[in-house]
Amino acid sequence: MKLHLPSYPRGHHQISETVESAQLDLDRLLFPRAIEVRIQLERQDPYLRLDCQLKTSIHRTCDRCLADYDSSVIADARLVFVLGAMPSHRNEDAEEIQYIPTDSQEIDLSADLRDTLMLSLPMKSLCHDDCKGLCSQCGQNLNEGLCRCSR
Ligand SMILES: [Zn+2]
Ligand SMILES: [Zn+2]
């Protein structure tokens, strides 16, 4: 997803776009649905501040019961770009600022949006927080009922 800079003069802009996961180089199996991207852009040259919100759903396999499930994902990110060269004296929050050439026509947000989504995913894949998993002896899905082993 690219921002065409001449389309956004000084001031505030709302951007809404729907992008396919492949456009952000995301795994289609994990992200089967399109991603809704909303960006509030504030441009005050040389600064561009972007508050991004991403919405989609992921398709995963539960670590405990091995069932496939979908769950919604909402991720936020604040990105700051500066048109110009990186200063030799960097202040404390400089790491969050990305410097781009003054004559840039566009900014490619794909990598930042992809990272934002990936970092928002829970480490564990659970269909429900209280998933009971499978019986270690007979393999019965204990969410669907108790097996004979426990009687
Ligand atoms: Zn489960
Ligand atoms: Zn059992």
Task: Describe the protein's architecture and organization.
The chain is mainly beta and 151 residues long. The chain has one helix and seven strands; from the N terminus they run βββββββα. A five-stranded mixed sheet has the order 2-3-4-5-6. The protein has a two-stranded antiparallel ribbon with strand order 1-7. It is elongated and about 70 Å long. The model has no long low-confidence stretch (mean pLDDT 92). Bound molecules: zinc ion (ZN) (2 copies).
Which labels suit this protein?
1 helix, mainly beta, 40% strand, binds zinc ion, 7% helix, 7 strands, 5-stranded mixed beta sheet, 151 residues, single chain, two-stranded antiparallel sheet
Low-confidence parts: none
Shape, principal axes of CA atoms: elongated
What's the helix-strand series?
Answer: EEEEEEEH
Average residue pLDDT: 92
- Helix-and-strand structural type: mainly beta
What is the percent of helical residues? under 10%
Topology:
Elements: E1 2-4, E2 11-19, E3 35-44, E4 47-61, E5 68-83, E6 97-100, E7 106-108, H1 110-120
Parallel strand pairs: 5-6
Antiparallel strand pairs: 1-7, 2-3, 3-4, 4-5
Question: What is this structure, in a nutshell?
Answer:
With 151 residues, the protein is mostly beta strands. It has one helix and seven strands.
